[in-house]
Structure formats: structure tokens, C-alpha cells
Amino acid sequence: MIRHTVNLKERSYPIFITTSFDELGKSVLSLRTGNKILIVTDENVDKFYSEICLQEMKSNGFEVYKHVLIPGEEHKTLEAIYGIYQKLVEHKFDRTDTLVALGGGVVGDITGFAAASYMRGINFVQVPTTLLSQADSSVGGKTGVDFEGHKNLIGAFYQPKLVFINVNTIKTLPKREVSAGLAEVIKHGLILDAEYCEYIKDNADNIFCYDENVLQYLAKKNCSIKGSVVEADEKESDLRAILNFGHTIGHAIETAQNFELLHGECVAIGIVGAYRMAYYLGVVTEALVENVKEILKKLELPISLPGLDVETVYSHIFYDKKVKDNKLKFVLPRRIGEVFQCNIEDSELIKKVLLDLSR
């Protein structure tokens, strides 16, 4: 088992990276929390992993309950939170007890926000089962739900007590979801580590063949990169915003398409948009833009969205949480492995980029 720690003083927590659930119950037991656990999962994950996780908890002396969500971003709502509250009240959970998120990013976001808000905060453990959630959303403490069509509009920063990653869970994912997760994986390399980008590109085939050593290395590297950024800027006042690379346009596309595309697919298109914008600003060469597009294609990610409605996506960008005083802050590349933040007020430039992405 690989262990990595996110250092946030009194909110520090361990990340365990392994290839089974054998140590899950013991790991949660080490937190010395209350005796009750509510495992929150969704209908897709439930049939694969709920029973083994329930038994792991029970064999370590916990009183365990389960709550199953309807899967999909369109169900990441306050209504889903309400259902968790009902289950917690029904079984008389108190502030010493624990919520466990067993699933992908949607399950983690919902469960984390329920944990942050029930009794003003109870214990929370992340058990991410998708590559996207293992690479990104399970680490860093961002929780929340969508509201009236606007992504992650309601939420809180709330750190887990523990993250437990079994890399073999991605074997039960459709290949499309594995590719979508690789968008967040490659994002970490693009913003901070050019060598990591090369490693991902060179090992694409091994990733799709579920090589355990490669998957564990990816998880460790992702947690290390994201953890270092979160340690420096937990509440996204400055540096942490670089983790939104590709997300300003990506989130707008995701919402405009009514979540028909996977989050990682939208991020990949948004990454191309960021490189196109940097090209138009004279920061990067067209050759570099094409190089990045080739890397994304090797990971079987989309690099455009033919038929994209420029005006609709443009309007959705302004609901982004990074908009201040009606100014859009973009994270743009300087080169592979380095990015910078800047305000873009040129609406024609933004629409020009969106038009490129529509072809």
C-alpha cells in the first residue's frame, strides 16, 4: 500500500493507494471516529463494490448503513442531499460518526456536502472508484451540488478525513469513462509537470490495459501534484485556481450540452480552447497546440465539438465562479508544464476560440 499525506495542519489527512479493499475497514478504524458509518454510493457502483465495503466495515466493528443515489450529473442536486439527511436522522447519526463516499466525482461531491452541512460537519471518507475521481475530485475538499442548471453553484470546502484508492475499481468502467478520467490526469502534467505528460503519453496503452503499477503511479502522482497545490492554497484564493485549467470553457460546454458529455470530455475540449486562446495571444505556437491535441487524441479524448452553439456556451461561461466584476479569469498555458492566470475582457477573442472548437 502506498501512503501520501495532504498537509493542512489540523485538517491533514492520509491518502492510501492500493489494489484491493482489504485494508479499508482497518484504515477507517484508525481514524478513531464514532461507531456508525453510512456508505453513500450510486446504482452503478452499488452492484460491484458495496457489499465488499460493507463487510470490510462490519468486520472491523462498525454499525454500517447504505444509501444509494441515482447516478449522473443531472441528479447532483439538493434533493439528493435531502435523502442523505433523512437517512442520517433515521439512524441517529451524531457528529462523531462517518459518511463514506463510494463512487465517482458526483457521489463524492454530494456526500462531501452532506457531511459538511449535517450537524455543521461530520466525518467524511472518500473511496473514489473512477479514474476521474481518483485523479482529481476526491482530493482537495471541494464539495457541492448543481443548482438550476449551474454547475457546483452550491457547496463548501470540506476536507475528508481519509482517501482510500483501490486502483482496480476502474476495470469495471466503460472505456469512455477511463478516457474521461485521463483528462484530469493529463491536466496535472500540462499545468505543472512536462515529464509527467510524457509518461502518460508513453503509457497510454498500459493504462487502457489496466497495468496495476502504472495505475498506482498515476494515482500517487496525481495526489502529489494536486495535494501540493491544495496545501499552498486550500480555499482557491490564488494558486489553486490553476487546477481549473480547461474548466472555464469545459464547464460551460458541459452545462450547455445538458451534461450529455462526460466532465472529462468537456475538460479536454476546454484544454484545447485554452491553448487556442494562448496561441491567439501570441504566447504559444500553433505547433504546440497541435502537439497537445495529439496527446489528447492518443488518450481517446475529444478535441472539438462540431455544432457547438457559440452564443449559448459563451453565456454559460459567465456563471463560472471565477468571474469577478464581469471579468473572466482564464488559466492559460505558457508551455507544457507551466500555466498562468489572466483576465480576458475581449468577448470576440473568446467567441473566436469557441468557434474553433465548434469545427
TrEMBL record:
Belongs to the sugar phosphate cyclases superfamily. Dehydroquinate synthase family. InterPro entries: Dehydroquinate_synthase (IPR050071), DHQ_synth_AroB (IPR016037), DHQ_synth_fam (IPR030963), DHQS/DOIS_N (IPR030960), DHQS_C (IPR056179). Zn(2+) binds at residues 184, 247, 263. Residues 181-323 form the 3-dehydroquinate synthase C-terminal domain. Residues 69-179 form the 3-dehydroquinate synthase N-terminal domain. This is 3-dehydroquinate synthase. Keywords: Amino-acid biosynthesis, Aromatic amino acid biosynthesis, Cobalt, Cytoplasm, Lyase, Metal-binding, NAD, Nucleotide-binding, Zinc. The keyword Amino-acid biosynthesis applies. Its EC number is 4.2.3.4. One of its GO terms (molecular function) is metal ion binding. One of its GO terms (cellular component) is cytoplasm. GO terms for biological process: amino acid biosynthetic process; aromatic amino acid family biosynthetic process; chorismate biosynthetic process. Pathway: Metabolic intermediate biosynthesis; chorismate biosynthesis; chorismate from D-erythrose 4-phosphate and phosphoenolpyruvate: step 2/7. It comes from the Bacteria. It catalyses: 7-phospho-2-dehydro-3-deoxy-D-arabino-heptonate = 3-dehydroquinate + phosphate. Binds 1 divalent metal cation per subunit. Can use either Co(2+) or Zn(2+). NAD(+) binds at residues 105-109, 129-130, 142, 151, 169-172. Catalyzes the conversion of 3-deoxy-D-arabino-heptulosonate 7-phosphate (DAHP) to dehydroquinate (DHQ). The keyword Chaperone does not apply. It is found in: Cytoplasm. Pfam families: DHQ_synthase, DHQS_C.
